[in-house]
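[agent] plan:
  1. take the single chain provided in the ticket
  2. run structure prediction with default settings
  3. attach structure tokens to the ticket
  4. add a short note for the reviewer (M.T.)
[agent] executing step 1
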Amino acid sequence: MAFNMPTFLQRLTRPFTSTTMHLNPTASSPATIPTGAQKCTIAAGCFWGVEHMFRKEFKSRGLYDARVGYIGGETTSPSYRAVCSGSTGHAEALQVVFDPEKVSYRDLLEYFYRMHDPTTSNRQGPDTGSQYRSGIFWHDKAQEEIAQDVTKKVNEKWWKGKVVTEILEAGEWWDAEDYHQKYLDNNPGGYECPSHFLRSFPPLD
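[agent] step 2 finished; step 3 output follows
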């Protein structure tokens, strides 16, 4: 008799494979960046839930596109399987393309610090490994300054001095395979990291 795992257990146990996974999956082409748009690249654990939450929060507030992928590693064209092994050095990450006239980079980072736990090194909830680390990958000096300022404030006012988020210049970005894009939209009962939820914190200013 086959055992069918209850839906709530499926959501607490991240699958390594999927019925839609291919042995040699390819990622689709990156989205075109509109004139005046900016990029925000962050890592906060399993990228399925990170993308889902950012899309839901900012879809009508200046978000042009959101892509999941890999950054901060040492190899080229990493696959999901390789990144999950921890051998490539990449983090699972989200890259948001946004309209700075409608939402600020600072607002995106404050949301980032509300929706995940930045105090656990190389881990997010039950997901353990350097690929699940917390990180901000800046694209210019202005973003670096904002990232440092927001991180300092949330560390003091929200997270009691325990923030371990890395702040690094954005290196080469690799889109994840197609089946990872909008994963929870396409798989409504799919895994969501239990540490991904919006915290109620007082305003920073």
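[agent] step 4 note for reviewer: The longest helix spans residues 141-157.
[agent] ticket updated
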